[in-house]
Amino acid sequence: MVYFNNPGHIKKFSIDILEDLHYITMSEGFLKENVHPDIFNGFSFLLCETTNPKIVSEEQFNEFEDIYRQLYKAFQSDSPYRNKLIGHLFVAILIKIKEYVWKDSVDIKEIGRTSEIVREFKILMEKHYRELSMGTLEKANRVQEYADQLFLHPNYLNSVIKNATGKSVGNWITEKTITEAKSLLRNSDIPLKEISYRLGFMEPQNFSTFFKKHTQRTPLMFRQGSL
């Protein structure tokens, strides 16, 4: 069986028979430096929060075991290429997991958890932008802040949202910011400077540039056209 776990996630297992066990832990920094900067995009299962154990055949397990032993040997060596070698061997394990274990299937537990995360994220976003528009908050949330509130890794949150909705968390934030900006410009006489502050922009010029990039009009042009 193959299990995945991430920092901050506590899991309890009850195993009746255990003949052999390999447990590999690596930091995100090590993976990005010695495997690939975008490792989570290629191996999204690393970020899965809740999955059922995956069963492999004896032949497949033997293939994993061969790589495990090479990895352990590399770990104990003093080679100047030690970390790179470990990284490449770990990629071999990930590819085998993708081929034999994960494939293109999505775990039922993960589907249920995904729906819950998407719902909670949307609720948090609506509440956050309502407070921003009212002027009760000074700083707009980014991916990290939403992930912190949901007790998730930001890469995992972004992966879940993008897979479920087709849009990344950043895209959701951008679209929501533009929607709120249009509403304030159209339905209020709040000065442009104040609107930019309410939506988390420290400089009005940054807000104007952001708004024009996504609407092809400056905030002032949009307001005047809405009158």
UniProtKB/TrEMBL annotation:
Keywords: DNA-binding, Transcription, Transcription regulation
UniProt cross-references to Pfam families, sorted A to Z: HTH_18
Record's signal peptide: none
Domain called HTH araC/xylS-type: residue spans: 127-225
InterPro entries, A to Z: Homeodomain-like_sf, HTH_AraC
This protein's name: AraC family transcriptional regulator
Keyword Transcription: yes
